[in-house]
Amino acid sequence: MVQQARARVTRDKIMQGAAEVIREVGYANASLGQISEAAGVTKGALYFHFNSKEEIARALIDEQHRITREAAKKIMSHDASAIEHMVQLTADLAGRLVGDPIVRAGIRLTTDSSTFDSPIAGPYQDWMETFEQLAMRAQHQGETNGVIAPDLLARFIIPAFTGVQLVSEAFTGRRDLPERVHEMWKILIAAVVAEDRQEHVLGMIEATFSRLERDTRRRQSEA
Amino acid sequence: MVQQARARVTRDKIMQGAAEVIREVGYANASLGQISEAAGVTKGALYFHFNSKEEIARALIDEQHRITREAAKKIMSHDASAIEHMVQLTADLAGRLVGDPIVRAGIRLTTDSSTFDSPIAGPYQDWMETFEQLAMRAQHQGETNGVIAPDLLARFIIPAFTGVQLVSEAFTGRRDLPERVHEMWKILIAAVVAEDRQEHVLGMIEATFSRLERDTRRRQSEA
């Protein structure tokens, strides 16, 4: 048991080290030597857990997806409207993209076409299904205006968020991500939310994202 | 003069070859040997034009940007409403992303974080400025409903398009890109277009994208 726990700690260290190295030099340039050094483990320990750099990349993507899906499950267990849940899911992911190295690395490896021979589609698919279900619930509960079909909204919102975080990374290293996701919601709300719910929902996103912007600034001034 | 023209042809061949190799094996795995072979030029000729793989990547990004900006200038020289111009710009770029190897490669190299040490922001910036000007014109001409500020629309639409083409690439190798851009516009129109203009604009995007979807299918069945 102690041995298992120790192995788990080593594996986590390797993934943290890999996330750090990938962030600094990019996946293509990252070497297993640099990763073991950043992780503070021997190369032998690294090879005990992973056979290749690609295996580490896949583990980072899986771990990122596990972390964010767990967080999503928790968010959706709270009582809130479907639109509120959607907004909270994107705010939570934006927060982790700014503050959690594993999530940053996992998302970056997913969007980089050069990481693997064939592109990664699974995580996008999971999020689209979640958002389609939420969009259907929003429609049934009269939160939406009925103009945009639930599956269409889900098929757009996941790619749109993907592009927003990518451009935010290119422009500001994701410092302006909370603000950009907030702006995305202003547009989506104008498109899909029922007229008599708009004021309420705009107030809710205002509160959600000003909190996130504040947290992000505080975390960055501490870093 | 003949020599200059020949040098130009060789340079173009190298870029086409590089685009092909990058598409097949990814930028990280592409070697200068593979590129000169795919281009049908000697390694000496390749080194006459480019000192490194990174220089070829930068040339591909520049050439992609030049091609698409030229196309944009032509589109905007035609008489049309600002919203129509915006729609046509995205449809044109979607068509080139499906059909032009240089544009495909240039965009892919721009969105891949691992291509260069520091991310590329210039092309995004140029498109955002163009779209902000168009969104301002749309507002002045009463095409929009006044809910979403022009700069906010531009700041969202470029990242959103970026994500849409990236997810379309991951899911279908960009086969469904025209359809996805069409869907993006349905949502944007619901958000920003003035009530009394919506029907007209929806008809216009229907015509634009069904033409593009037809062209894309034809080109793919020929390929």
Automatic annotation (TrEMBL), chains A, B:
<dbReference type="InterPro" id="IPR009057">
    <property type="entry name" value="Homeodomain-like_sf"/>
</dbReference>
<dbReference type="Pfam" id="PF00440">
    <property type="entry name" value="TetR_N"/>
</dbReference>
<protein>
    <submittedName>
        <fullName>TetR/AcrR family transcriptional regulator</fullName>
    </submittedName>
</protein>
<feature type="DNA-binding region" description="H-T-H motif">
    <location>
        <begin position="31"/>
        <end position="50"/>
    </location>
</feature>
<dbReference type="InterPro" id="IPR054126">
    <property type="entry name" value="CprB_TetR_C"/>
</dbReference>
<keyword id="KW-0805">Transcription regulation</keyword>
<dbReference type="Pfam" id="PF21935">
    <property type="entry name" value="TetR_C_45"/>
</dbReference>
<keyword id="KW-0804">Transcription</keyword>
<dbReference type="InterPro" id="IPR023772">
    <property type="entry name" value="DNA-bd_HTH_TetR-type_CS"/>
</dbReference>
<keyword id="KW-0238">DNA-binding</keyword>
<dbReference type="InterPro" id="IPR047923">
    <property type="entry name" value="ArpA-like"/>
</dbReference>
<dbReference type="InterPro" id="IPR001647">
    <property type="entry name" value="HTH_TetR"/>
</dbReference>
<feature type="domain" description="HTH tetR-type">
    <location>
        <begin position="8"/>
        <end position="68"/>
    </location>
</feature>
<dbReference type="InterPro" id="IPR036271">
    <property type="entry name" value="Tet_transcr_reg_TetR-rel_C_sf"/>
</dbReference>
